[in-house]
Design a protein that fits this description.
Layout: H1 2-7, H2 11-29, H3 36-45, H4 48-70, H5 76-99, H6 102-126, H7 139-159, H8 163-172, H9 177-201, H10 207-216, H11 220-230, H12 236-256
Helix pairs in contact: 2-3, 2-4, 2-11, 3-4, 3-6, 3-12, 4-9, 4-10, 4-11, 5-7, 5-9, 6-8, 6-12, 7-8, 8-9
C-alpha cells in the first residue's frame, strides 16, 4: 500500500480510479469519448494537474488495445490531415500548463468537460452527418480538420479531453462505427505517445505516477474486452445520454470543488 500512501489515496479513492481505468478500456473499444468520465474521476481523486500525467499511460494502454482490435479500419488520409494542427494544439496546451497552477487546471478541466458535453448535445441534435470521409481533401474539409485538430491537441494536452472533439469531427466527416473506431484508435495512440515527452518535461510523469499506473493498468484490459463484446450490442443513444450526464456532474464537481 506504499503507492496509496504516496498519493494519500483511500480505499474508496483507489476503487474509483480502478473503475475509471476500466472505463478507459471500454471507451477505447466501444464509445470513443466516454473516458471524459474517467478524466473527471482522476481529477477529483488526485491533484488536478498531476492527474493528467497519471492518466496518460492508462490512455496509451487503452489505445494499444484499440489499435490491435480495429487496425484494419483506420482512414489514414484523415489522420495525415489532422496531425500538423494537433501538434500546434499540443504546443499551446504545454505552454498553458507551464503557466497554470493546480486550481486553474482544475477549473479548465471542468470548463472543457462542460464545453465537450455541450458540443456532444449539439451534435446529437443536428442529426447524422452527410459528408464522406474523403471530404477531408476539399478546402472546407481541410479548414475543418485544422480547426478541430488545434482544439483537439490543446484539450488533449491540458486535460486528456480530446476524445469528444475528435468524436465530433469524425462523425461530422461521415465515419461509420468501425471506421470511426479504427481511425480514432491510431489517432490517439500516436498523439498520446507524442505527449509523453511534454508531460515528463513538465514533471507530470515520474516514478511516483508510473507506480500508480502500474497498479491501475490491469483494469484497462477487462474494460477493453467488455467494449469489444458490447460494441455491436450496446444501445448507443442511451449510453451517450448517460455519458453526457456523468460528464456534466463530474465537471460541476471540479468547478465547485
Amino acid at each position: 500500500m506504499n503507492m496509496m500512501t504516496l498519493w494519500h489515496i483511500t480505499g474508496w479513492g483507489f476503487a474509483a480510479l480502478a473503475l475509471a481505468a476500466l472505463l478507459v478500456g471500454f471507451s477505447k473499444t466501444a464509445v470513443s469519448g466516454a473516458n471524459t468520465v474517467s478524466l473527471a474521476i482522476f481529477a477529483a481523486v488526485l491533484p488536478a494537474k498531476a492527474s493528467t500525467g497519471v492518466l496518460l499511460p492508462i490512455l496509451i494502454a487503452g489505445d494499444v488495445l484499440a489499435v490491435l482490435t480495429y487496425r484494419r479500419h483506420a482512414h489514414w488520409p484523415t489522420l495525415w490531415r489532422l496531425f500538423p494542427a494537433v501538434a500546434a494544439g499540443v504546443v499551446l496546451g504545454t505552454l498553458f500548463l507551464v503557466w497554470a497552477d493546480d486550481g486553474v487546471v482544475r477549473t479548465s478541466i471542468g470548463a472543457i468537460l462542460l464545453l465537450m458535453a455541450g458540443v456532444t448535445v449539439w451534435r446529437r441534435r443536428t442529426g447524422d452527418a452527410t459528408d464522406e470521409p474523403g471530404a477531408v481533401a476539399t478546402r472546407s474539409g481541410r479548414i475543418k480538420a485544422r480547426s478541430y485538430g488545434v482544439l483537439g491537441g490543446f484539450t488533449t494536452m491540458v486535460a486528456n479531453a480530446g476524445g469528444p472533439v475528435m468524436s465530433l469531427y469524425l462523425l461530422s466527416a461521415g465515419f461509420r462505427k468501425l471506421g470511426f473506431l479504427g481511425t480514432s484508435a491510431f489517432f490517439f495512440l500516436i498523439v498520446n505517445v507524442a505527449k509523453v515527452p511534454f508531460s515528463a518535461g513538465l514533471g507530470l510523469i515520474d516514478g511516483r505516477s508510473l507506480l500508480l499506473d502500474l497498479a491501475l493498468v490491469a483494469f484497462v484490459v477487462p474494460g477493453a474486452l467488455l467494449g469489444k463484446w458490447a460494441v455491436h450490442r450496446i444501445d448507443q443513444r442511451l449510453f451517450e445520454q448517460l455519458v453526457i450526464a456523468a460528464t456534466v456532474v463530474g465537471a460541476l464537481q471540479l468547478l465547485l470543488r
